[in-house]
Specification:
The structure is a homodimer.
Chain A lengths: L8 H13 L4 E8 L9 E2 L3 H10 L4 H11 L17 E4 L5 E2 L6 E6 H6 L1 H25 L4 E3 L8 H13 L4 E2 L2 H7 L2 E2 L5 H5 L4 H11 L5 E3 L5 H14 L7 E4 L5 H10 L6 E4 L5 H9 L6 E4 L1 H4 L9 E8 L2 E2 L14 E5 L6 E4 L9 E2 L2 E5 L2 E2 L6 H13 L3 H4 L10 E2 L1 H17 L10 H5 L14
Parallel strand pairs in A: 6-7, 6-12, 7-8, 9-10, 10-11, 11-12, 16-20
Antiparallel strand pairs in A: 1-5, 1-13, 2-4, 3-5, 3-18, 13-14, 15-16, 15-17, 18-19
Helix pairs in contact in A: 2-5, 5-6, 5-12, 6-7, 9-10, 10-11
């Protein structure tokens, strides 16, 4: 599967038309999330590295042109202008791990129009998905309130690659480990895991299973205690751990948080106060929040499916909109979907009182820019950021996020404001578009239009010079 | 990312323990979906080919052992038993495209216990995800009631690989095309797409944009008419199509279905009754159903995000459970999660009145088996099925699905029944487990237990010989 053809066909039809028409002037597109999903107080920017890998390697080869030609039912020869096309533009983006809000550009592309258009689908896919999952995972960390959270999602993510990202993005926002061995190896995060119920079932009884497991695995053990009866299972685990003197660092795992109090009491009675309790099984930030608030004595939360697919909000309302073409600001006007014109910058101010400004504005005294130049001339600038860089960024931003935005239930997201210059430009562009549009009354008014009420210009066109 | 390490660590700890303990007898695991998600009347089996590719290529190489060893904080030497491990077992599975119901095995693995365990995570991932998406897409085809449906989901799926599958699985259940060029090239399904709003915005006006598009693209055109004002856009499109004599086969696309009636009237008035209307923008089976019921004159439905991520139900309650080990049937007993013992077969009877039976039972007179042998000794048997094979299977099964299961809203899923022999085995195993378990009263009964009511044996253990 070629990355060049991993795109919507319309990107290709548009790029080809732009090339044929000589419309190769620089365009800036802005990628942002219009509105946060329900129950989200913030987003965590992610996916930039995947996008930059794609952009720096993109090259439309002869086989890609063949595929495009087949898709369009045309001879490959007629698609010659696409051949060899690479991404030669620049990227300004919010580094992975930073907190972003609705309407704030996650990434801006400035490149010859055909290139800036061609990359839309892939870049949207990568940033939308990874930002979605990082944001969901971050809520689990908040819910756990300092207790470790680990990722168990691989079996239910949307393919193994999504599973890899779920593990990586959990680590980005502070998860302590993942069950996914490949992701652990690639990211350096701890691999975690113990046994399934089927392991216990494969032996005549729990004690035989736990002792066999201990024979194979030296050091601290994690024993799954709820295959049959949880209380009995905890007693058996305690006996085995004591007999083998393997208590310190060991743990028991419950596939439900309900019995944690009883399990804790039994472990304490058995003289094993250091044996930890790991809860798993259908957990997400809501369930973790409930368990933490009920003071359940759980030491580690393993979250899986619901987090790996962001089950309560499995997509973001992301957009990739042209904001400037050939030096002219472009703006989309409609009651529902306003896109402010021009390349932008976001200034982070204390308490996430962010200001969305034009890219060439100077920061307010207490603001620092979120978007950084990460690619020029189709090449990455600077070092490839590490997972630790992202972790540090997230931790720092989280510390400045208002408490209302951090809540798991009914969070209140901060809203960015717009700089005076950006507001003035938007008003100016809007006025110039309105002047160019025919007045509503001058258009033929038919029954269907009248039924929708007075016509309102919903203009998105560039302002001509 | 190695496929061998794309697994939960616990599969590795268990496999290693089984190898060390000499527990390499044949085990059968059954993969099934316990309960259908809300608003689902059936599932479409999918993902088998991905699973078989993995199983036939699986080999634990030296680097994989290094990764496992690092994950377990042990010297690689101690994990030697895993080195070179391949999948040597057999697979019986429901071919892709067939309709399946809750509780019916999608796939059964019979292999030496360490192998059968090691492959759990990857196989669950592939079958769960692809069955989920195929089932969602099938509902769109039903809602469209004969009108073509196409896939526009790539920008919002959980990574590009999930986007590829969304396109492929749409084609499996009868979608007429996809915007995803790579998927179109790989599967032979039609690639579809036209232009974005940004294309229209890049020109001084709609007419200039449409004419430029027509200059680049010969033959039928699809023009996006709702960048500014939909009615005006339709008029401009009609004028351009008439002027250029490009009406036949052409279409207009609306990012909302609301204005389809007006658009149809305008096209008809312009003498373009053959120009089709394509609706897109946030559509899923519910929205398509509403539009079809309201008799909106839409010719093609483009579905995207909500279908590509199965937004209303983004995961399946799938399970991979041991049902036999070393010749002994294994059973899990609990009020919530019963797993019937033994390798199984499903017999499809008219109207999806399926019977779940033991694998060696003879079919009832009017029943045909769903599970087929697709791998023996670690190698695929027979030809790799084509997408057309799957399409034909889905179409045939769909024809036999009761109307109540086909409904988009409040469908009623058929429930499989259990054969007499399977029921008798389950009762026998349950009785033998109960005899082996200590009676509830003989166990220490503490406050927490008493609070949960009388103890009930929740036994999952194999029946000893």
């Amino acid at each position: 599967m070629s990355e060049a053809t991993t795109t919507d066909l319309y990107e290709v039809t548009m790029a080809l038309s732009y090339l044929r028409e000589g419309m190769t002037g620089p365009a800036t597109f802005s990628l942002f999330v219009r509105d946060l999903p329900p129950e989200r107080g913030f987003l965590v920017a992610a996916g930039l590295d995947s996008a930059l890998d794609y952009l720096s390697h993109l090259r439309v080869g002869p086989e890609d042109v063949e595929d495009f030609a087949a898709a369009l039912h045309r001879p490959a020869d007629e698609l010659r202008p696409l051949r060899g096309l690479e991404f030669t533009g620049g990227i300004r983006a919010v580094p992975e791990g930073r907190i972003v809000l609705a309407g704030e550009p996650l990434l801006e592309v400035t490149a010859p129009l055909p290139e800036a258009q061609l990359v839309e689908t892939y870049v949207l896919n990568r940033l939308s998905h990874q930002t979605l999952i990082a944001s969901k995972a971050a809520r689990c960390v908040l819910a756990a309130d300092g207790r470790p959270v680990v990722d168990f999602s691989l079996r239910r993510t949307h393919g193994p690659q999504a599973g890899f990202q779920a593990a990586r993005l959990g680590a980005l926002v502070g998860f302590a480990g993942t069950s996914n061995v490949a992701a652990a190896a690639a990211t350096g995060v701890a691999a975690v895991g113990t046994m399934a119920h089927s392991y216990v079932e494969a032996f005549p009884g729990e004690e035989e299973a736990f002792r066999a497991f201990a024979r194979t695995h030296p050091g601290p053990l994690t024993l799954l205690v709820d295959t049959y009866d949880t209380e009995a299972g905890v007693r058996v685990a305690a006996r085995v751990l004591r007999d083998l003197d393997r208590g310190p660092g060991s743990a028991v795992r419950l596939d439900s948080g309900d019995l944690a109090v009883r399990a804790r009491a039994l472990l304490d009675e058995a003289g094993l106060p250091d044996v930890r309790i790991i809860a798993s099984g259908g957990l997400d930030e809501y369930a973790v929040d409930d368990l933490v608030r009920s003071r359940a004595p759980i030491d580690v939360f393993a979250v899986g499916t619901r987090v790996g697919v962001s089950a309560d909000a499995p997509y973001l309302d992301s957009a990739y909109k042209m904001v400037e073409y050939d030096g002219r600001p472009v703006m989309k006007l409609s009651s529902a979907k306003v896109t402010a014109p021009g390349p932008k910058q976001v200034f982070r101010r204390p308490g996430c009182a962010d200001v969305i400004a034009l890219a060439d504005e100077r920061p307010p005294g207490d603001g620092t820019p979120l978007l950084e130049t990460v690619m020029t001339g189709g090449r990455r600038t600077g070092e490839r950021p590490t997972l630790d860089d992202g972790r540090a960024r997230f931790a720092a931003d989280l510390a400045g996020l208002p408490a209302a935005a951090r809540r798991v239930r009914a969070p209140v997201a901060p809203r960015a404001t717009v700089s005076g210059r950006l507001a003035a430009l938007a008003a100016d562009v809007r006025r110039r578009i309105d002047e160019r549009m025919p007045a509503a009354g001058s258009r033929p008014s038919r029954a269907a239009s009248a039924a929708r009420g007075p016509l309102r210009p919903a203009a998105h066109r560039p302002v001509s010079r």
